[in-house]
Amino acid sequence: MDKEPHISQRFDEELQGVHELVLTMAGVVEEQFANAMVALQHQDSELANEIISRDAVVNGYEVRIEEECIGILARRQPAAGDLRLVMTLIKTIADLERIGDKAAKIANMVLSMGHGSQAIHANFLRDVHAMGEYALRMLREAMDALARADADAAIRIARGDEELNQEYRGATRRLVTYMMEDPRTITAAIDALFIAKAVERVGDHARNVCEYVIYLAKGRNVRHIPLEQVAKDLQKGAS
Amino acid sequence: MDKEPHISQRFDEELQGVHELVLTMAGVVEEQFANAMVALQHQDSELANEIISRDAVVNGYEVRIEEECIGILARRQPAAGDLRLVMTLIKTIADLERIGDKAAKIANMVLSMGHGSQAIHANFLRDVHAMGEYALRMLREAMDALARADADAAIRIARGDEELNQEYRGATRRLVTYMMEDPRTITAAIDALFIAKAVERVGDHARNVCEYVIYLAKGRNVRHIPLEQVAKDLQKGAS
Predict the structure, then answer these.
(1) Is residue B220 helix, strand or coil?
(2) What is the DSSP string of B155-170?
(3) Mean pLDDT, chain B, as a whole number?
(4) Which positions make up the signal peptide (chains A, B) (predicted)?
(5) B31 Cβ contact list (under 8 Å, min separation 6)
(6) What's the average model confidence in pLDDT over B194-223?
């Protein structure tokens, strides 16, 4: 019996350790994405190159954390809430890694746009700046909700994704208008279109993390269920 | 002692059952994607509607299989190869679900393109048809490699993704040319661009499954490692 608390304490420490590693990875990914937005606004190819080379760091975190999670599953055989936490972390790092990819992709486009970049309309830069700020806030808040296993916050943040999607649709409509008015802008506008899409996808990944947080806190898989209904169900469960 | 084989046999059956369920889900997803390509070629809105409503079936498989996998982790506490198999299946269904999303997305575009659809250049339809065939073959072969845990096949299939990416780049270049030549095609060409992108992404997901198969068969996480090197390393390991 007297070994129990010791084993369980070490287990808790292991779980805590990998949880913290995920939050560290999230910090690196947030910075990568924020930098990609800056590189885009200022056509800063030095910063863009830095982001691209730092993507390997993000990938390294993903591989290391996944190995640690599988190690915990094999050695500790967690159940109930502990198992849900490990599953949540495994899924979260896959989304974080993909956000890192988006940052690197945007950085790559900053480099490849080169001379054509002046053709990027100032209005588009304003659009994508606002979208980037919004996506970054979603990501930060989602990771906060994960750190606190806060399902209510997660629902609220996930709902914000619809607003980002609307921004995206507006931005693409405006880009199409520029292209039609001046076909010389077509190539630059298509790059811009894919940049806007990448930013919109960051919001989707943040929303995914929110869904894992609801699963972690409530034990319910809410993927593919409208958020409206999830909020109602959780309220019913709480009362 | 005599309970061991019984427990282990039931465990094997559980694993086998969930493995088969994944292959069934893959069959549904393959059909969804193949149908999306047909709906696009023939501007068939009835088929498109069918694909969209059937996406819920794909999502249902994802939720059910994930629950079964987590149940196996909790009850059976698998180790080594069994644990790798469960992790591989959990990851695979996430990619399959996303391929299902791409099929539904293409079907949605078939519907929304409406009257403008005649503006889609016959050359683009030829391009995307060839890309779709290629992506579908990659997906089928990847699921085959998974069923046989065949790492060599997985490497070969994953390498094919580069060819699909080249096809995609060629198709987008041609689309940009049409847009420049005739700005009236811009809206339709942008729809076409996103359809081509969705098909290209199906190849990425098939490639992901190949990476999980290598992990399953060899116990090595090969994500973020060039395939050239993976092939060399595995050959060395085998000799």
Answers:
(1) coil
(2) HHHHHTHHHHHHHHHH
(3) 91
(4) none
(5) none
(6) 95
Cα A127 from Cα A130, distance rounded (Å)? 5
- Name chain A contacts of B74, Cβ cutoff 8 Å: 79-80, 83
Question: Please, which residues 142-171 of chain B have a Cβ atom closer than 8 Å to chain A?
Answer: none
The pLDDT, as a whole number, for residue B1 is 43
pLDDT at A115: 54
Q: Which residues of B touch A183 (CB under 8 A)?
A: 179-180, 183, 186
| Interface contact B62-A223, CB threshold 8 A | yes
Spatial contact of A52 and A103, defined as CB atoms under 8 Å apart: no
Sign of the Cα pseudo-torsion (B132, B133, B138, B139, in order): positive
| CA–CA dist A118, B221 (Å, integer) | 42
Flag if A67 and B221 touch (Cβ within 8 Å). yes
Mean pLDDT to the nearest integer, B183-192: 90
Confidence of residue A236 (pLDDT cuts 50, 70, 90): confident
Q: Are B186 and A179 an interchain contact pair (Cβ–Cβ within 8 Å)?
A: yes
Q: A87-96, A182-191, B12-21, B44-53 — which is least confidently predicted? A: A182-191
pLDDT at A233: 84
Question: Quick check: B7 contacting A, CB < 8 Å?
Answer: no
How close does chain A come to B130, measured CA to CA in Å? 23
DSSP B16-53: HHHHHHHHHHHHHHHHHHHHHHHHHHHT-HHHHHHHHH
| Mutate: best of A186, A201, A220, partner B, most B CBs <10 A | A186
pLDDT of residue B28: 98
pLDDT at A238 (0 to 100): 59
Q: Is A1 on the interface with B (CB under 8 A)?
A: no
CA distance B12 to A231: 39
* B87 shares contact with chain A (CB less than 8 Å): yes
Q: How many CA atoms lie within 13 A of B114 on its CB side?
A: 3
**Least CB-CB distance to B180: which of A91, A186, A221?**
A186
Q: Each residue of A199-226: pLDDT tens digit?
A: 999 999 999 999 999 999 998 888 888 8
The residue written with tokens 């995307």 in the block is: B128
A66-77 CB burial, b ≥16 within 10 A, e <16:
bebbbebbeebb
Tens of pLDDT, residue by residue over B114-172, are 655 565 778 899 999 999 999 999 999 999 999 999 999 999 999 999 999 999 999 99
Domains of chain B: 4-238 (1.20.58.220)
Q: Check B186 against A180: CB less than 8 A apart.
A: yes
Of all residues in chain B, the one with the smallest CA distance to A91 is B91
